[in-house]
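Input record (one chain):
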Amino acid sequence: MESTRRNFLKLAGTAALAASATPLLSACRGIVRVDLKGTGSDAEGPLLGPGLSDILYHASLAPSGHNTQPWTVTVHTPDRLVIGSDKGRWLPGVDPENREMLLSIGAFLEYLIIAANHQGYDIQYRVIAQTAFDQDIIEVTLAAAAPQPGTKDPIPRRRTVRNGYTAKEISAADTATLSRPFGGDLLFIPRQSRQGRYLKDGTVEANRLQAYREAAQEELARWIRWTDEDARRERNGLTPEGMEITGIAGWYVRHFMDRQTVLTRKFREQTVDIVKKQVNQGGGWLVIASRDSAIPTLIETGRKFGRMLLELRPRMIAVHPMTQMLEEAPLRDGVARDLGIEGTVQFILRTGYLTTYPEPVSLRMPISRFVSLNSTGGLRSDPNERNVQVIRG
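The corresponding structure, as predicted from the sequence alone:
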């Protein structure tokens, strides 16, 4: 049994190929998003109409670290919302300054805006958080506008893909499209270039450091949903399907792995081995920077990131966030300098073309889990309102 346990990640590498070959392995599929999408009152959230519920559901399909889905929404009136975050879904082990959380909130806001435009609403918003640890972050107002049908359609099909990349470099035309939201703040780095080798080696080293840093590994263990029962109950976090451990290996880990497994030396070693293989796949890296890490800047960068992700599937491009270099000292302090980038690096993404694009599998919490009503009505005032951004979406 112990020998099998120690080799389960090696099985994971071949199980995905075998899973499509036989009905037996297809029956080993774990819980995926389509299995858990709510119906009735659960889908419409607490006392929400179908329009706003649909907007919030699409917003919730935004990416987040460890798929924690850190966002909250307080509904003051049907046209006045506050987007915030749940402290219980922060990641202090790898994101102690809530930088990555705020980027995720920005992506959530972007998908909310896109879905609202589809429904016939214009969005006005302002950042109200004064620190990265304030739980109320963005005030949102909806106003009737001409519908923009179809704008939300790409959101449900967005997916992070970890494996199956070809070695072809991203074309200049596709790079230009992906760069459009960022201006000069997105850089494509070929895998075989000097900078590409720097990112490859640094990513392996950062993953090694993180795998043996107890706070980070214990946090990872807390957010893996090994069993189908955990997946159904929590509807967030990392599942075997989301980590692309499928087929027989997926069945095995769902039945025999647990939180303590993640803390074993063998699991840590195998994790680093997998990263070594992954960084040798694909056509290169996308690096996204911003002028600083102020709260409004992080929100805007997250918005742009969320928008860029919707351009990937039509072009058969995948990205795999590998931001460990930005999370581990001393590596994080030299990334921008060593890459010759001005500003602050916010994302490091391994990228490449796919020959087939898998369907989304990551779980999503029901709307009722992250939406609440403010019975008193009205939004809190901001004593520093002159410093708050007002941007029309």
